[in-house]
Amino acid sequence: MKTLGHWLASPWQRSAAAAVAGALPVLAFPAPSLWWCAYVALVPWLLLLRTAPTGKRAVYDGWCGGFGFMLAMHHWLLPSLHVFTFVLAALLGVLWAPWGWLVRRLLTGIPPWTRVAAALLVVPSGWLGVELIRSWQGLGGPWGMLGSSQWQVGPTLRLASVGGVWLLSFLVVVVNVAVTVLVAVRQSRVPAVAGLVATAAVTSAAWAFSPRPAVDGHIRIAVVQPGVISGPDSADRRFAREEQLTRRLAGQDVDLVVWGESSVGFDLGDRPDLARRLADLSRATGTDILVNVDARRSDKPGIYKSSVLAGPDGLTGQRYDKMRLVPFGEYVPARSLLGWATSVGKAAGEDRRRGSQPVVMNVGDGLRIGPMVCFETAFPDMTRHLTKEGVDVLVGQSSTSTFQHSWAPGQHASLAALRAAETGRPMVHSTLTGVSAVYGPSGQRVGSWLGTDASATRIYEIPLAHGTTPYVRLGDWTVHAALLILAAWAAGEGGRTLRFRRSAPEPRTPPARTVHGSPARPGR
To answer: How confident is the model at residue 104, as a pLDDT?
Structure first.
């Protein structure tokens, strides 16, 4: 019977094992929501990397593990992008190739305590470097960041207010590295335990002394979720269903009504009849209505996704055009090169147009809201900016109708908890067909979710809080610290290599023997 070592000796089998190991962290995210497994989910991958026979093999293992991670995290795209999903996962998986080499460099063999201490800082910093690069919207954005798996854990949400989701990712990887050393290297267990204790002490101090948002009021916001409506005239029938649901809110004393993404399928400048119906709904409910228009604009070329506020007198003139579009879903990057994706899946046939800046909207008697559309709720910098602009409530409008029966709706809704905790502002995640959810200023859930099968309205009593969290004030300091750690380690490694080369003795060449003043000829 072959041992595991013999089985992993095959390059293909080793690559398959790396891909499976890289996919394990997905279990910590919704729908499984096994948040605790995030702290050990990287251990099999780390064990594989540290035992790679060569640095080149560690690079391959890092790539294959990254492929498994990205494919598992985005498996719900398969019905839309088909085989192209595997291409994207393979391309993005390359980002973990240097990380694989880094892990082997620091953890191979029996590392001394100095290397273990370095690994506890450098390996998580390398992971954050990967997350930073892939967070660029052109590469898919910050979907599935490891720290996002901790969205329902109260203590970690407190830490998010200090360093954002970046700090959570860093700490999760630190624990995984320490557990790997405890499992694999008996001689280095003391520094690994010391690292865990130091991490626990620092995080406990941050948790204890970080400011808590103080509740200073409440508002009532209603979410309207019509559910899946397809077939002929679906845009008209969807509007009618949303209108019917909204009328049920008459006399309910709400401060704002929020519809989901693409809730209006016509440009309201071309359809004054729909604008009048929205104004009538606003008068009936006694509040403004935030809708989302997905249509070709009548006042400028192109298709936009826009959050539009309607009041009792009609459209208020406050509008936000979506800035960060979903790659392939709303535009095709490098269409001349990758346009073939439209022939194998449901990639965008025409690129949507982008807005130019975030917008803070004024609602009713002084309520200030910051709208975002779908994919944008994954970006912590957007909610930080809106918070600095003085919003009272963050609002995300979304739709996951294509992915109703996957893990995507729940995972998308969970992101709002992190954005609320990071900023100290409540967040409303209102969907057309997905999971609608609301979170308070500490990231705690308010009320219950509206599931993917719901076609209903729900009113949420939402606590308000003001003040500035350390994360809003200091920004992405965790990322900057990680980059400094990587730079310092690289400089140290370069310095050691240079000193080694300078101190190495010159090879000694023995002098040739001579016979009667002439070089001796070798004998037979």
So the answer is: 96
Phi, psi of 83 (to 5 degrees): -65, -25
Q: Are 371 and 430 in contact (CB under 8 A)?
A: no
Q: Are strands 437-439 and 427-431 parallel, antiparallel or unpaired?
A: antiparallel
Number of Cβ within 10 Å of residue 256's Cβ equals 24
- Whether pLDDT at 1 is above 50: no
Three-class SS state of 143: coil
Residue carrying the six token digits 């070592």: 5
Tens digits of residue pLDDT in 217-267: 999 999 999 998 888 888 899 999 999 999 999 999 999 999 999 999 999
Residue 357 phi/psi, 5-degree rounding, is -160, 155
Contact 439, 463 (CB under 8 A): no
In whole angstroms, give the CA distance from residue 407 to residue 75. 9
Mean of the pLDDT values across residues 478-504?
Answer: 85
Query: Could you tell me the two tokens for 50?
Result: 């540290």
Q: Is 383 exposed, middle or buried (0-12, 13-18, 19+ CB in 10 A)?
A: buried
Q: What would the two tokens of residue 2 be?
A: 């072959």
> Average pLDDT, whole number, for the chain?
88
Exposed / middle / buried, residue 415 (Cβ in 10 Å: 0-12, 13-18, 19+): buried
0.85 surpassed by pTM: yes
pLDDT interval class at 331 (50, 70, 90): confident
**Model confidence pLDDT, tens digit, residues 142-167:** 989 999 999 999 889 999 999 999 99
Report the pLDDT value the prediction gives residue 429, as an integer from 0 to 100.
96
3 state SS of 157: helix
Identify the DSSP state of 132: H
Residue 5 pLDDT grade (very low, low, confident, very high; cuts 50, 70, 90): low
What is the three-class DSSP state of 370? strand
Q: What is the DSSP string of 281-333?
A: HHHHHTS-EEEEEEEE-SSSSSEEEEEEEEETTEEEEEEEE--SPPBTTTB-T
What is the distance in angstroms between the CA of the first residue and the CA of the last residue of the chain?
52
425, two tokens: 């502002």
> CB–CB of 291/226 below 8 Å?
no
Question: Which residue's structure tokens are 């809708």?
Answer: 291
Distance CA 79, CA 512 (A): 75
* Omega within 30 of 0 (cis) for the link into 160: no
Question: What distance in Å separates the CA atoms of residue 52 and residue 59, rounded to the nearest whole number?
Answer: 9
The string over 79-113, giving b where at least 16 C-beta atoms fall within 10 Å of a residue's C-beta and e elsewhere, is ebbeebbeebbeebbebbbbbbbbbbbbbbeebee
Number of residues that this document lists for the chain: 524
